[in-house]
Fold this protein.
Amino acid sequence: MKSLNEIKTGNLPLERRDFLKKTGAVGVMSMFGLSFFTSCSSEDDSPNNDNTNPPAPNTGIVVQNDQVLVDLDVASVLNNTGGWALVIQAQVLIVNVGGSDFNAMTSVCTHSGCDRNWTFSNNVFTCTCHGSRFRTDGSVVNGPALQPLRSYPTEVSGRTLTVDLG
């Protein structure tokens, strides 16, 4: 009699796993259509007002009251021109625009309120929900957004960057 606790393990060859991943994605897209994955949704459209979660450990970024405090020794991605961060808890985008000059703006897109789907390339932030693009000062490059992102004042003191949200 076979034991019911018998366990079998194994690994698919890498080529087979890649094939299954690709064909699975194509199958799902064929079934639902590509527009299903890129259409407007309501999941990320409303701003996240839950400020009870602490920031991830060792990020060097702390949100307290109406300020975002950034330890530039820890958050080293912001040390170089073009380095940027999305602080989800505070709904803020921060970008190094040159040396110790920083811009900060809301991460809530003025088109539909998406607040966490951002990319940054060639000094332009793109909200990947619907493709609105913004300069590092928050002004609109192209829509569908028509209004700029709200900017926040920044100040560097020693190795601490402060973003004033008030």
Q: What stands out?
A: Residues 12-41 form one domain. Residues 14-32 form the longest helix (19 residues). The mean pLDDT is 74.
